[in-house]
Amino acid sequence: MLVFETTRFLKPGFNKWVFEHVKALVKESEKTQPTGTTFFLTSVLATIIFFPKYIAVASLTFLALGDVAAACVGEKWGKIKMFHKSLEGTLTFFGVSVIAGWLLHFLYPQLTLPLILWGSLTAAVVEVLPLPVDDNFSIPLITSFVMWLLAK
What residue ranges do the domains of the chain occupy? Predict the structure, then answer.
């Protein structure tokens, strides 16, 4: 992905081709910045390297499932806006993350209910905040860090 992104920025013709032929995979805002996929893959690598397996798996699952669910609900039913996101989407993110965390608890008993709840809340709050860093990058790292601190 890093080779792809580097090529895209060093070769304007290739970047143009990407936006003409692979529109479904890129956002208009990504013409001049790295794609969400690059941020996601970078955070996956860092999360796996720096945090215990059960915390990394939980925080990455919160992002993968919670973010998609939040976007679907927020776009369709979101009425109450917060920082360009919706309360309905944020609550969905939290709920889906709690359910996913509870299911992961059966694989990783170290994922206690308080850890799941705090991790889910952290992920949902980080997703809604207008941070200067892509949420695909910030959610797993910040969530993992908070869960790691609470697990100590």
Answer: 2-31, 39-151
